[in-house]
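Quick one from the shared queue. A colleague (R.T.) flagged ABM domain-containing protein as missing a structural entry in our internal table.

Convert sequence to structure tokens.
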Amino acid sequence: MYIILYSFQVKPEKEQNFIKGWKDLTNLIYKHEGSLGSRLHKQSAYQYVAYAQWPDKSTFKASGEKLPKQEADKARSLMRSSCENIEILNELEVVEDLIRVKQND
């Protein structure tokens, strides 16, 4: 697996717009580009970190061309206009994966 860590500095009063744009774009990438999904974490006031997971580096590098343009542009625009800064913090290869999703009985 391949992991991308993102940092987002969100503008004051734009947190809900950012989260909506991030969710919409992440869902499109999952559906159309083969990602394994992402998690969004709040680090501090207006600072978020996302962890995006891909099956491998080549799938990540080849992504972007299969998205429905109008929907993706709308989500991307909402997310970007809600941020002061967006950056990739790191790209990582998974060595071991011990995250478990607890199933409800």
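The beta strands are 2-10, 38-44, 47-54, 83-93.
Residues 24 and 61 are 20 Å apart (CA to CA).
Added to the table.
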